[in-house]
Amino acid sequence: MKITGVRVQSYRIPLVEPFRIALGTTSVAEIIGVEVTTDEGLLGYGEAAPAKRITGDNVEGVKYAIGLLGEAIKGMDPMDMEQIYWSMEKVMAHCSEAKTALDIALHDLMGKILNQPLYKLLGGYRTEFFTDISLGIDEPQIMAKKAKNAVDEGFHAIKIKIGTGFVEDINRVKAIREAVGKNVTLRLDANQAYKPKEALKIIDKLADYDIELMEQPVPWWDFDGLAYVTMHSPIPIMADESIFNAKDALRIVEQHAADLINIKLMKCGGIKEAMKITTVAEAAGVECMLGCMTGETNIAITAAASLGAAVKNFTRADLDSTFTLTSLPMKGGVSFQGGRILLSQEPGLGLLPE
Ligand code: MG
After folding, report:
1. pTM score, two decimals?
2. Residues tagged active-site
3. CA 70, 73, 78 angle in degrees (round to 5)?
4. CA distance 142 to 209
5. Hey, how many other C-beta atoms are within 10 angstroms of the C-beta on 16?
6. How far, in Å, from the CA of 78 to the mean position of ligand 1?
7. Alpha carbon of 225 to those of 105, 139, 184, 218: distances in Å?
8. Chain CA centroid to CA 2, Å
9. Which of 1, 117, 220, 327 is the most exposed place for a label (fewest CB within 10 A)?
């Protein structure tokens, strides 16, 4: 089978409500959908959800990059992923989101060619697992009410966005813990908001509220600061914006800069690179979470969920972006019952056009 072309389409989906994190607020998801076509009529679906504050990618740049990368892989066999991966690396450095869109579509195709759901093709470790749900930065009482509602809907883990200051952050976490009781997992994400010593000061106080982990307390470039916080924090520290690819993962584990790693397909360039990251992490005894960017639709979320189900070292999931969207571009794929992620048994991603 040969790849004959790549179709690209960008579109916008309004969020149910604006989503605020320490880096900024998002109101509309900007999505780039791709369809990889083949000479035997099979189609592979993928997408990018440019997160310019994190990856530096935007819609126009990603579309341009997909055009160049698509030309480079035309004529190749979609099963030859290693060859395709290195061909894309030769065309363009970085630009992870464009590579991810194609990588997802090619994995969808591989599943269809082999007539296997993607989670089985990638390893088939589990058939279901659980996602948390993220709460954007807001007034403590509003966040507490949303947290309680989420628990009532069947979520067992809440991810709390923080990073606007010591007192405000403590008030948020306190209000949420009081609202949900002691049996719900609370994880925090400061999205780079603090300097290392500020982070430790706030973590020391937050530890009173039984916190499972904190993501990215310090700026992405401050590996020494991240290592300092990790060394001294009573709460496990997870690297997110500091780690894009397997080389970053190696640096994180060599420096003992984090206890845990958050892998997102949009940061790393796709499923193939994500497998490399989790392999490096697993060898160092570091567990991984599968995360997502705000705005990812059921295309990227199905790909991420398939990977999460395939590999033992993914012990946590934060795959909640579809809950925030007012519509989805495709039918099928992954589905949810509260926080429970249910994998499709259809070949590839199991997605169909609306
Ligand atoms: Mg994060």
Report:
1. 0.97
2. 161, 189, 215, 240, 264
3. 115
4. 18
5. 9
6. 32
7. 37, 29, 30, 7
8. 30
9. 327
